[in-house]
Amino acid sequence: MKVKAYLAIEQTISTMSGNLEINERHEAGVAIVSLKGRLDAASSQEAEQRMNSLIDAGDRSILVNLGDLDYISSSGLRVLLASLKRLKKTGGDLHIACPKPAVRDVFTMAGFHRIFTIDDDEASALSSFTEKA
Amino acid sequence: MPQKPPNLVYGLEDTLPLPTALLLGLQHVFVMSTAFIFPVVIVRSFGGSAEQAAFMVTMSILAGGVGTILQALRKQGMGSGYLCPAVCGPSYLSASLLAAQTGGLSLVYGMTAFAGLFEVFFSRLMHRLRILFPAEVTGVVVTLVGVAVIPVAIPNFLGISPGDAVTEALELFVAAITLGTMVAISVWSRGKLRLYSVLVGITIGYILAAATGILGGPEIARILDAPLLALPDLSHPGWSFDLALLIPFTIAVLCSSLKSIGDLTTCQKINDAEWKRPDMRNIGGGILADGSSALLSGFIGGMGQSTSSSNVGLSIGTGATSRIIAFAAGVILILLTFFPKLASVFVVMPGPVMGAGLVFVAAFMIVNGLQIITSRMMDTRKTFVVGFAFIFGLSIDIFPDFFTGLPGSVQSVFSSSLALGTATALILNLIFRIGIARRKTLLLEPGTDFSDTIFTFFETMGGTWGARKEVIQRAESAVNELVESIVFLDATREAIRADIRFEEDSLDIDIRYTGKPLDLSPGGPPSDADLLEDDTALARLSAFLVWKYADSVTADDKDGECRIRLHFDH
Hints:
heterodimer, A: about 130 residues, alpha/beta, Transcription Regulator spoIIAA, 5 helices, B: Heat Shock Protein 90, two-stranded antiparallel sheet, about 60% helix, transmembrane helix (chain B), transport (chain B)
C-alpha cells in the first residue's frame, strides 16, 4: 500500500498553454495526463509535444483524464489520435477517462468512441490497463 | 408533435382503461377539494347562511368540472388539451371578499362573470405577448405558484386552523404518515402503484384521522346526514356590478391568468421531452378555457375559476398526464353536484391529510419552476429579474403586516408572493430588455488566440440573450471549427467577420472572409488513417463537425468574398 501511495504522488508536472492546463503524474505504471480548459488549435501543439515527450521517455500506458476539459476541436482530436497511433506501434495504449457530456458527444460524432477506450472514471480506466496487461 | 418523456406512465395522448381513468380522476378530485373551502370563507365573511355557502360550493364544483373538460378539449381554439383542472382560484379571494362585504353574493357573481369575460378577451392576445414571458419569467411564475401553496399547506399539515393554533402530536402523526406514504410509493414502489400514490396516502390519512378522532363525530354525521342524490339548489340571488370593483377584479383575473400561464407552461414541459419554450398560442387556448369557466362560474353562482397548480404537481408526481383523466375528473365533479353525500366526503377532509397532499404536490411545482429558470443561460440582468422577483415576492409571506395598509384596489397585487413576484419579474424583464442588441459582429484575426475571443463572446451574449446553453455550445464550437479550418488551410490572412443574429427561436451566424473558399460539402468523417496521413483530412473532420453542430450550413463565394451561413434552431 505504501508503494502505491508513493507512486501516486511520484511527480506532478503542470503547464499552461493557451486556454489549456496540462497536468502529468504517474500511478501504478500509467502516465496520467489531465487536461483542463479547451484543447483546440491554440493549445494542441503544446499538448502534442507533451504527449510525445511522455512516449519518448518510455511511457507505454497513457491515461488522458478529460474530466475538466470543456471543449475539444478537431485539432485536439488529432493530437489524441496521433499519440494513440504512436503507442500502438510499440505495444502501448492510450485510454480516455471522465469526458464531460459535451466532449463525449464530439468523440461520438467523429466516430472516435470506436477507436478509444473511454471510461467514466479514472479508477476504471486505470484498472482497464491492468486487465489488458 | 411533443415527444412523450420516459418518466410518464400515461402520457398526454395515451388511452387508459375506464376504471384506471376513474380512479386517477378521483385522485385529482381529492386534491381539487382543497379549494372547496374558499367559497365558504367568502360567504362567512359577510355572515351568510350555510345554505348560501352550500350553493356557492356546489356551483363552483360544477363550473370546475366544466372548466376541467374545456381545458382538456383543444378544439377550435378552446382549451390547451392538457390535464390542468379548474378550481376556485385563490387569486379571486381578495376581490371576492371585497365584493361580498360591499354588495353581497350577487355582486361577487356579477363581478366574477365580468372577470371571466375579460379573461376570454385577454386570451386572444396571448400569442402576441411572448416577449413578456421568456423562460426565466415563466420559471419564476411556476416556482411561485408552488410557493403560493405553502401558506395553505403548512398550517393544514400542522393541524392549525382559525380557532385552533395548537399542533397536536396526533395531527402531526397523521400528516407525517400520509405524506410518508405518498413519498414512499413515489420513490420506492414498482409498477403502476406510483399512479395512485396520493390516493393511497389520502385514504390512509382518512383512516388514521378517523381512528385518532381528528375526523370526529360532527364530520362523520355530516356525511351520514347528507342525501345520497339531490338536484343542486338553484336559489340564485342574481347578479350586480360595481364600477369601483373593476380594478380589483381586473387585477385578480390578471394574477389568475399569469398563474394559469405558469401551470400551462408546466403542462407543456412535462409532456414534451424536447420542450424548449412556452407555446403561447396553445396557452391562449388554455386561458380561453380558464376565462370561460370563470364566466360560467359567475353566471351560475360560483367563485372565479383558475387552473389548479396542485393538480399539475400531482400529474408530475404520479406520472399520469393523459387528457382522459381530465375528462374523468370533470365528469366526477359534475356528478358530485348531484350526490351531496359523496361531495361531503371531500368537504370534511381533515387538515393534516389535506396539508400532506399539498406539501407533496408543491414540491414538484417548485422544482419544475427552477428547472425552467435554469434551462437558459443567466447574466446579471436575468439574475436581477429572478432574484428580485423572489425577494420582493417572498417578502409578502415573510412580512405580511408590511402590506396590509395598502389601498384595496391594489391589494390583489400585494396579496400573495405569486402576484407581487410575477409583477416584479414582468416589469424588470421589460426594463432590462433596454440596450440588449440582438445583432452583434465579431472580428477574428488569424494568428491571434481567436478561440478565446469566440468562446468569451458566446458565453457572454448567451447569458445576455437568455439563450439555451446547449445551442450556444454548439454555435461556439461550430464557429471555432470553421475558423480553425480557415486558418489551417491558409484560406485567408485577413480578418474574418462573423455577424450573429439572435431571435428567441433561432440563432444565425454569417461568416465572411476574403480568400479561398472552404469545401464544406456534407459527408462522413475521414478515417483515422487519413487523419494522420492526409493534411486535408483535418479540414474534412472540421467540416463534418460543423455540419453536426449546426442545424443548417450554406456556403457561397462571389468576387473572392466567401460567405458561410450557420443556422441553429433555438
